[in-house]
UniProtKB/TrEMBL annotation, chain A:
Keywords: ATP-binding, Nucleotide-binding, Transport. PROSITE patterns: ABC_TRANSPORTER_2 (PS50893). Pfam families: ABC_tran. It comes from Glycomyces luteolus. It comes from the Bacteria. SMART domains: AAA (SM00382). This is ABC transporter ATP-binding protein. CDD domains: ABC_DR_subfamily_A (cd03230). Gene3D superfamilies: P-loop containing nucleotide triphosphate hydrolases (3.40.50.300). GO terms for molecular function: ATP binding; ATP hydrolysis activity.
From TrEMBL, chain B:
GO terms for cellular component: plasma membrane. This is ABC transporter permease subunit. The keyword Magnesium does not apply. It holds the Pfam family ABC2_membrane_2. GO terms for molecular function: ABC-type transporter activity. The keyword Lipid metabolism does not apply. The lineage of its organism: Bacteria, Bacillati, Actinomycetota, Actinomycetes, Glycomycetales. It comes from Glycomyces luteolus.
Length: 297, 329
């Protein structure tokens, strides 16, 4: 289990003159539930499609479980992918989809799949095109999980779902993970969802990776510093300023301590995950985040 | 993968099989009918047998032509309605992102689709071709113009090649266009253009035609003069037919034995002496040059036509196998 589930180096994907993903370098260890967050158009789907092997990089390198994505049937068997909008064959029944999974995956766990479908109350004879959005997502999740992959990738699995279905889907997902011992990468633009289920975070904005790491480490390494103006100019090496906000008398900084040592500073305060993510997203857009203090002081 | 391919094509295959079965039944009936007519009018013919040939040609000619046209259209329809949506429908519904992430490589996915769906397409078209070839057998023997463009492309091997080509064409156009309707329209258009190109430009060049000088006294034993005209510009044969052969020349100038063109004046001089035009031409040692593809090249041409189409199909399949693993999203 020492092979990283996802390892990329300067991974870049361009569509014509549009750069969807630029110079992404990541190293995601096994056994994590990774949240990939960022605004729409940040490159989340591109990164996940590259990881699933649906598309190939323009430049750079990507390895999933130590192999080139979609290199062969064995690599494909190790990775379950649920695409955005959870596509299923509208003309095929739920039962057909299970047969599809069984015929196309040598590692198919029929007992698991049947059990899930029964538990979800899906009618085997029902056409997938007549399922609700939540049921479709659950069916797609079942197909991806029943092949017993080592890594499950979800692209915005809950974006199209109502809050109830979303909660049910995430609940199900958590059960899968506990039951199957699988690493997960899921993308979302809802930080709340990520906070609830993930333990590792990748923030993507403007086609670039802004920050990545275990959530506990990240929240422990990010601080808000408030001090009289001019007193916060000299920071130790390895402490990066992510955002700075100045009033006439006072300066507020959001800093990332990359030294690996505890950061002791008068006036230093921890910040929540959501504030941290928003700070990075605002920085990527070239904006400061003036609302942070007001809402979260 | 075979299960999924069959599950996805089941409905379309069944109704297509229905159409093919109906066409096959009709061809069996027609074949028997033509054989009856042939026995009655030609084998057992005692008097006026030349007319019998015409009767047979008139009776079945247009029917066979229509079926031939259907057989020419079948590959185009298969390319547009089966092959083109094969990929575009997956792309439009997003299901390629489901199926391409099962434990089956895209190369294998494509190979199975190509072999099974393409195979059924070729099988259906080929079966119709062989049945039509059988049914039209006596008719083709009597009319003896197997190089006729609409006949040639709708008999024996040629439809097999067309089916292969139309199928791979639809597939590749689908991969490139990604929109079902666009892919269907482009497939139809390109394939029809190819058929026209094949008949008018490529096929005549499969082999260097033979040019033969025919003396007027042999003109109607070697072949048959459809119409012969004479005017101030000289004399010419409008259409010359050689049984089973493909005459390439369309207007044939007639020369006298001394190498100059036969003219109206020659005819008048001769007629003044009381001869028929044929007598005059023979007396003046008239000859003409015919350029044609001999009848015994029929099977060579069938094989070449099949080979050209199959070769192009292989190239197109190569494009699909190169393109699809590289991603279409």
């Amino acid at each position: 289990m020492n092979t990283p589930v996802l390892s990329t180096n300067a991974l870049t994907k361009r569509y014509g003159r549009h750069t969807a993903l630029a110079e992404a370098t990541l190293d995601i260890p096994a056994g994590r539930i990774v949240g990939l967050v960022g605004p729409n158009g940040a490159g989340k789907s591109t990164l996940l499609a590259l990881a699933a092997g649906l598309i190939r990089p323009t430049s750079g390198r990507i390895e999933v479980l130590g192999r080139t994505p979609a290199a062969d049937a064995a690599q494909l068997a190790d990775v379950g992918f649920v695409a955005q909008d959870t596509p299923v064959y509208a003309g095929l029944t739920v039962g057909d989809h299970l047969k599809l999974g069984e015929h196309l995956n040598p590692t198919w766990d029929a007992a698991f799949a049947d059990g899930r479908v029964r538990q979800l109350g899906l009618d085997l004879g029902r056409k997938a095109g007549r399922l609700s959005g939540g049921q479709k997502a659950q069916l797609a999740l079942t197909i991806a999980a029943a092949k017993r992959p080592k890594l499950l990738i979800f692209d915005e699995p809950v974006a199209a779902l109502d809050p109830l279905a979303r909660r049910a889907f995430l609940q199900n997902l958590m059960e899968f993970v506990a039951e199957l011992d699988v690493s997960v990468i899921l993308s979302s633009h809802l930080i709340g969802d990520v906070e609830r289920v993930c333990d590792h975070l990748v923030v993507l904005a403007e086609s670039r990776v802004q920050v990545a790491g275990d959530i506990d480490d990240l929240t422990a390494a990010h601080h808000r510093l408030v001090g009289p103006r001019g007193t916060l100019d000299a920071l130790p090496d390895g402490v990066q300023v992510i955002a700075a906000d100045h009033t006439d008398r006072q300066t507020t900084l959001i800093v990332h301590n990359t030294t690996g040592r505890p950061f002791e500073h008068p006036g230093a305060d921890t910040i929540g995950l959501e504030d941290m993510v928003l700070t990075y997203l605002h920085r990527a857009e070239g904006l400061t985040a003036p609302t942070l203090e007001e809402t979260r002081a | 993968m075979i299960w999924l391919t069959w599950r996805q094509m089941r409905a379309q295959t069944l109704w297509s099989a229905g159409i093919i079965a109906a066409a096959a039944a009709y061809l069996l009936y027609l074949g028997a009918d033509i054989r009856d007519a042939y026995r009655l009018n030609i084998t057992d013919c005692t008097t006026g047998c030349d007319d019998a040939v015409h009767t047979l040609a008139d009776q079945f000619g247009s029917g066979l032509l229509l079926i031939g046209l259907f057989l020419l259209a079948a590959p185009a329809l298969i390319g547009a309605f089966w092959a083109a949506p094969l990929i575009t429908r997956e792309l439009e519904t997003g299901t390629h992102r489901l199926v391409w992430n099962q434990s089956v490589t895209r190369t294998r996915w494509l190979a199975v689709k190509l072999v099974i769906v393409g195979g059924v397409s070729v099988l259906f078209t080929g079966a119709l071709s062989l049945l039509l070839t059988w049914a039209a057998g006596p008719f083709d023997k009597v009319v003896d113009s197997r190089f006729e463009p609409l006949t040639f492309a709708a008999r024996d091997l040629a439809p097999f090649g067309y089916a292969l080509l139309a199928f791979t064409l639809g597939l590749v156009v689908g991969v490139l266009a990604r929109k079902t309707l666009v892919a269907m329209a482009v497939t139809l258009l390109v394939f029809v253009v190819f058929q026209l190109l094949m008949a008018n430009v490529l096929r005549p060049q499969f082999a260097e035609p033979v040019t033969e000088t025919i003396g007027w006294d042999d003109a109607n034993t070697v072949g048959h003069i459809d119409s012969f005209g004479i005017g101030p510009q000289g004399a010419g044969i409008q259409e010359y037919q050689i049984p089973g052969a493909w005459v390439v020349s369309d207007y044939i100038v007639v020369y006298k034995g001394d190498g100059t063109e036969f003219t109206e004046a020659d005819l008048k001089t001769c007629e003044a002496q009381g001869g028929t035009p044929d007598d005059c031409l023979i007396a003046l040692d008239a000859t003409f040059d015919v350029t044609y593809q001999p009848a015994d090249r029929y099977w060579d041409f069938q094989w070449i036509e099949f080979g050209v189409a199959a070769g192009l199909a292989a190239v197109l399949a190569g494009v699909a196998f190169w393109r699809i693993p590289r991603g279409l999203s």
